């Protein structure tokens, strides 16, 4: 049975905790605290350490799901959790201020995950219709970080099926890169 | 709009007075901080150099992880947390009835029992001071 450790990263309110709750087959480990700054992001709680859940995909793949706190002041948790993971679902809420630049900034903060496995980007809260829309993220990625080859999806973290599709895409991506890596090394002069 | 607890002058003032009192009861206390559950520092008193903002974030993570362990083992939320090391101990606990954590560093020669009781007495004092100076209660997290 293959084991995968996947990180959910991205800004506050992107839906990392929501996504792990949608996906997990076990009771999730949550570290939510009352949100002091509801005028910044209007939700009752925010993650202050981590989220943890597990899911089995097919008969084969056991996946451990870790969510990080979105707020940068908890970046020591980012460093701790980054080391464990071999892939990342980066969630960006389309209604965030300057959402496209936020995606680039968070990708830079978590760039190790790209090298350690693979990255898939999920743009959430597009149904609110206030953000730049999917095309803007794909374009910015191609233009500003062409070395990041990562698919961009519109996602609803509240929807289990949606999130399963994204997760399976990431895992297929990681496995393919792992398979190709030794071949590429062998082919190198 | 209600003001955030960590920016509320009454909370900061009452907190500062209580932490100063704590230092008087216990001279071995070298650092004490009051922070919101989500890791914003309200106030701190110190005799050492530390990054107060970072410490507040870390305390908040530790508090939440301890609560998660308590829930996992079905013993309820954590009452207090102790981090012991050869050169000192950190004790932290929630201020009764508030989404606020008191975290303090004591020198290692202080007995754990004394440090714990000083921290507990101070947490209770802060709770009373907040109530008396009508620091608004914040909604508890709903999870
Ligand atoms: N309308 C809409 N709401 C969404 C969508 N995705 C998530 N949400 C809501 O947005 C909020 C996201 O909150 P969280 O899951 O706590 O966000 P987070 O990324 O864990 O945030 P931090 O832990 O604070 O960094 C929740 O209230 C979700 O129900 C979406 O696609 N559309
Ligand atoms: Mg969260």
Tell me the number of structural domains of chain A: 1
Helix content of chain A: 25-40%
* Low-pLDDT residue intervals, each spanning 5 or more residues of chain B: 139-143
Instruction: Please report the distance between the alpha carbons of the first and last residues of chain B.
Output: 23 Å
The fraction of residues in strands of chain B falls at: 15-25%
For the secondary structure, the number of strands of chain A is 8
> In this structure, how is the largest beta sheet of chain B organized?
5 strands, antiparallel
Radius of gyration of chain B: 14 Å
Q: What is the CATH topology descriptor of chain A?
A: Rossmann fold
- CATH architecture type of chain A: 3-Layer(aba) Sandwich
Our estimate of the beta-strand percent of chain A is 15-25%
Helix fraction of chain B by DSSP (H/I, runs of at least 4)? 40-55%
The number of distinct helices of chain B, counting runs of at least 4 residues, comes to 3
Small molecules held by this entry:
guanosine-5'-triphosphate, magnesium ion
Main-sheet strand order of chain B equals: 2-1-5-4-3
Can you walk through the features of this model?
The complex is a heterodimer of chains A (189) and B (143). Chain A has helices at 16-23, 75-84, 99-109, 111-116, 134-144, 160-187; strands spanning 2-9, 32-34, 45-47, 51-57, 61-67, 88-93, 119-124, 152-154. By secondary structure, chain A is of the alpha/beta class. Chain A has one domain (3-187): 3-Layer(aba) Sandwich (Rossmann fold), CATH 3.40.50.300. In chain A, the strands form 2 sheets. In chain A, strands 4-5-1-6-7-8 form a 6-stranded mixed sheet, with helices on both faces. In chain A, helix 3 packs across helix 5 (134-144). The longest helix of chain A is centred in the C-terminal third of the chain and has 28 residues, at 160-187. Chain A starts with a strand and ends with a helix. The longest helix of chain B has 21 residues, at 52-72. The radius of gyration of chain B is 14 Å and the shape is globular. Chain B is built from 3 helices and 5 strands; from the N terminus they run αββαβββα. Mean pLDDT of chain B is 92; it is low at 139-143. Chain B is of the alpha+beta class and 143 residues long. Chain B has a single domain (5-132), classed as Dynein light chain 2a, cytoplasmic (Beta-Lactamase, 2-Layer Sandwich). Chain B is 41% helix and 24% strand. In chain B, strands 2-1-5-4-3 form a 5-stranded antiparallel sheet, sandwiched between helices. At the A-B interface, strand 2 of A face helix 2 of B. Guanosine-5'-triphosphate binds at residues 12-18, 43, 46-47, 69-70, 124-125, 127-128, 156-158 of chain A.
């Amino acid at each position: 049975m293959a084991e995968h450790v996947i990180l959910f990263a991205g800004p506050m309110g992107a839906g990392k905790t929501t996504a792990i709750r949608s996906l997990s087959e076990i009771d999730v480990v949550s570290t939510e605290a009352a949100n002091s700054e509801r005028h910044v992001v209007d939700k009752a709680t925010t993650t202050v350490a981590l989220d943890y859940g597990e899911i089995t995909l097919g008969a084969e793949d056991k996946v451990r799901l870790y969510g990080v706190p979105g707020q940068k002041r908890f970046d020591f948790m980012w460093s701790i959790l980054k080391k464990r993971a071999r892939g990342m679902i980066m969630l960006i809420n389309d209604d965030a201020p300057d959402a496209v630049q936020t995606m680039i900034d968070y990708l830079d903060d978590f760039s190790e995950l790209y090298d350690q496995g693979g990255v898939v980007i999920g743009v959430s809260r597009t149904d609110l219709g206030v953000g730049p829309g999917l095309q803007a993220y794909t374009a910015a990625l191609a233009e500003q970080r062409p070395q990041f080859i990562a698919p961009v999806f519109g996602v609803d973290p509240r929807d289990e099926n949606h999130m399963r599709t994204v997760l399976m895409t990431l895992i297929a991506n990681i496995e393919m890169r792992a398979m190709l890596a030794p071949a590429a090394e062998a082919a190198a002069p | 709009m209600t003001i955030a607890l960590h920016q509320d002058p009454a909370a900061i003032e009452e907190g500062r007075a209580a932490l100063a009192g704590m230092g008087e009861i216990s001279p071995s206390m070298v650092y004490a901080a009051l922070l919101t559950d989500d890791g914003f520092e309200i106030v701190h008193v110190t005799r050492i150099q530390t990054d107060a903002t970072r410490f507040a974030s870390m305390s908040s993570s530790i508090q939440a992880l301890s609560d998660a362990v308590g829930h996992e083992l079905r013993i309820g939320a954590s009452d207090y947390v102790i981090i012991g090391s050869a050169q000192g101990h950190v004790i932290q606990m929630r201020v009764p009835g508030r989404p606020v954590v008191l975290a303090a560093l004591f020198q290692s020669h202080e007995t754990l029992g004394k440090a714990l009781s000083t921290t507990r007495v101070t947490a209770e004092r802060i709770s009373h001071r907040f109530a008396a100076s009508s620091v608004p209660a914040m909604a508890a997290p709903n999870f």
